[in-house]
Design brief:
Strand content: under 5%
Strand order of the largest sheet: 1-2-3
Mean pLDDT: 78
Radius of gyration: 31 Å
Helix content: 55-70%
Number of domains: 2
Order of helices and strands: HHHHHHHEEEHHHHEE
Distance between the termini: 44 Å
Largest sheet: 3 strands, antiparallel
Number of strands: 5
Number of helices: 11
Low-confidence stretches: 1-13, 300-308, 332-342
């Protein structure tokens, strides 16, 4: 028996690139960074100074992780530059400069998304952009909200946290009542600051829920319910943090321990939120049972009898049908019989 020579499969790169594509991508990226550098530095200073948007550092890294976790099919990994990306890039840059000239700050910020999409389309082409657009859209979570929208969301959440924590403290038997956004426990006021309204947790958990929905392999209903669960999870974690901090202060009366517990519970909230998010997904999997796969017929080749070429057909067996233990066939089943001519 001769040995069959084995051919070594050539290594295939993750993405097919060439020198003109690399040059085009480098020039487009350099132009975008140069044009948007003041806006990017403003993002950095906002992330560094505003606690509600401190998660902005992680959003670009999470966007890259989405591309890696979702994967790109092998046939779509070839970079095919498209000139259709230039109009999108030009429109994005024009909107950005027009908004900066007229002091439309948030419009200037949001124009970053079509700019990034235009660069991606110009360098990679339509086929690869189909897999990149979720990560590009995910970058919206690193952009601060408009001031008016921030106030409209923050003030009701601040009042809800105050009322809910006061109710829980009263349920636990403490002499607590609320005055505006201040919880008074035994005559000692504890202010619920704007940073404690829960807006930071809400934006963070929305980003985490969207990332999870883009990665997990579930139907649309479960993904929608998982996304909607981000709001009650963020509110519950923030209410628990304020209640626990107030309870510690009421028992100890120490300002030092109140600050320690406030910061400690702040670090624990993302962990608790992540666990609640995982528990919500597990609960949805228990409530929505995947349908069993349909019956599948296994093809069976016909067999030939030794007598005069007579043929016997073996009945097909379908997955999921009951099997008669005595005959080894489906029950009920019509057996095909044949006889050899005499």
């Amino acid at each position: 028996m001769e040995a069959v020579p084995q051919t070594k499969t050539p290594h295939r790169a993750a993405f097919k690139v060439d020198s003109p594509t690399v040059l085009l991508g480098g020039l487009a990226l350099a132009a975008v960074v140069w044009s948007c550098w003041p806006m990017l530095t403003l993002f950095y200073s906002r992330w560094d100074s505003d606690p509600m948007y401190s998660h902005g550092y992680l959003v670009p890294l999470m966007a890259v992780g989405l591309v890696w976790l979702r994967g790109v099919p092998t046939e779509d990994r070839e970079l095919k530059p498209s000139w259709f990306g230039l109009p999108l890039l030009i429109v994005g840059l024009a909107v950005r400069h027009y908004a900066a000239a007229w002091y439309f700050e948030w419009v200037e910020w949001i124009a970053l998304l079509p700019i990034v999409a235009g660069v991606a389309l110009t360098v990679s082409g339509w086929r690869l952009l189909r897999h990149l657009w979720p990560a590009i859209a995910f970058l919206v979570f690193m952009i601060p909200l408009p001031y008016r929208a921030e106030i409209l969301i923050q003030q009701p959440m601040q009042g809800l946290v105050t009322a809910s924590s006061t109710f829980i403290l009263q349920t636990l038997g403490l002499a607590a009542h609320s005055q505006g956004n201040v919880v008074v426990i035994s005559g000692t006021p504890i202010g619920i600051a704007e940073a404690c309204s829960g807006l930071r947790m809400l934006t963070g958990f929305l980003a985490l829920s969207v990332a999870a929905a883009l990665v997990i392999d579930r139907d649309l209903i479960r993904k929608s319910l998982l996304l909607s669960s981000a709001v009650p999870i963020a509110l519950a974690c923030n209410i628990g943090r304020v209640t626990a901090t107030s309870l510690v202060y009421a028992k100890t009366g120490s300002q030092h321990w109140q600050e320690v517990c406030h910061d400690g519970f702040g670090f624990l909230m993302p962990v608790m939120g992540g666990l609640l998010l995982c528990g919500t997904l597990k609960l949805l999997d228990l409530l929505f049972v995947d349908e069993a796969p349909g019956t599948e017929t296994l093809p069976v080749e016909a067999t030939t009898d030794d007598c005069d070429g007579g043929r016997f057909a073996t009945p097909p067996i379908r997955i999921g049908d009951p099997i008669d233990l005595e005959t080894g066939h489906e029950s009920p089943v019509e057996l095909v019989s044949a006889s050899c001519p005499e």
